[in-house]
Amino acid sequence: MAKIAIVGDSTSVAGFRPLGFATFPVERAEDARGLWRELSGGAYGVVFVTEPVYSALEDLIVEVLDQPVPAVTIIPGAGSPGGVGGARINRAIERALGTSMLIREEEE
Amino acid sequence: MTKMRVNPNRMELLKLKRRGDVAKRGHKLLKDKFDELLKEFIARISANRKLRAEVESRLIGAYGLLAIARAEAGKANLTQALLTGAPVELLEASERRVMSVRVPEFELGEVPEPGGYSLATMPAVLDGALEALAEVVPMMVDLAQREKAIELLAGEIERTRRRVNALEYVLMPSINETVKDIQMKLDEAERGNLTRLMKVKDIIAAQEAAGER
């Protein structure tokens, strides 16, 4: 069994606490770096991070990219525009196909 | 293409030809794997894009409701109300193999019913906000699983492509060229040998003719 963690500003994460998530409110996105060892230790199957936190942790997150768990997923935080998660997937597509042409074709 | 440094003899020729066959077989296998991975990958992409858009819009909606609740109840009260509940083991995590890539599978358990806060002091909109969040949770977990699978597949595709290309554009041409080179050298040696024999035969014939005379 595994837990779900969510890291972000307190406004974004607070609502998930009653739902049984492990919430890690951080005041500044950089503070999340200190939590990373615990988050990636294996107790958490899925770690949701808000967009600012992802930007701060990107180099650490890349390290677990090729492991099945934890699955780090970007969610929009309260007050962030969204789209960072989609951009990351697009990068993965580019990495796989060597081009993002296919994506554009699909969208047309 | 670079030739390998090997002795041009039959032994090496045989060895290289065998290596070439293995490389060819490996290349075909890897190429098939690559195609299959790509098929799997592309099938996942478009479904994922829709799911992500939906999750993001729903989350933003729920944040909006939470913001209203905070405005009505006050930040301190809301924070206190949301302190109820503790982290529980929500997930059953297992692994599945897709074309030899280990991808995680998550089974979401029962999400606890939000509550435990005072209904008298908390606005009704908070219930709605938490309900909206609870509705998104299964989708979020699904999204996490899919995106992880996409990332893992992307990594594997990249690695496989490198291998396919290395075989196709480096190893196989270099083996082929070396095989051709050895064959040419052996042929040349054969011809040299033949001429030498003919020459020797001529010399012997000339000597015999001179002896008879």
Radius of gyration of chain B equals 37 Å
Can you count the helices of chain B? Answer: 3
Kindly provide the name of the CATH class of chain A. Alpha Beta
Count the strands of chain B? 2
Classified in CATH, the superfamily of chain A is ATPase, V1 complex, subunit F
Cα distance, first to last residue of chain A?
42 Å
Structural class of chain A: alpha/beta
Instruction: Kindly report the average pLDDT value of chain A.
Output: 82
Proportion of residues in helical segments of chain B: over 70%
CATH architect. name of chain A: 3-Layer(aba) Sandwich
Question: What oligomerization state is this entry in?
Answer: heterodimer
Q: How would you characterize this protein structure?
A:
The complex is a heterodimer of chains A (108) and B (213). Chain A has helices at residues 10-13, 36-39, 51-63, 84-97, 101-107, and strands at residues 3-8, 22-25, 44-50, 71-75. Chain A has five helices and four strands; from the N terminus they run βαβαβαβαα. Chain A has a four-stranded parallel beta sheet. Chain B has a domain at 12-158: Orthogonal Bundle (Helix Hairpins), CATH 1.10.287.3240. Chain B is mainly α. The model of chain B has no long low-confidence stretch (mean pLDDT 88). In chain B, helix 1 crosses helix 2 (75-81) and helix 1 (10-73) packs antiparallel against helix 3. The longest helix of chain B has 89 residues, at 124-212. Chains A and B meet through helix 1, strand 3, strand 4, helix 4 and helix 5 of A and helix 1, strand 1, strand 2 and helix 3 of B.
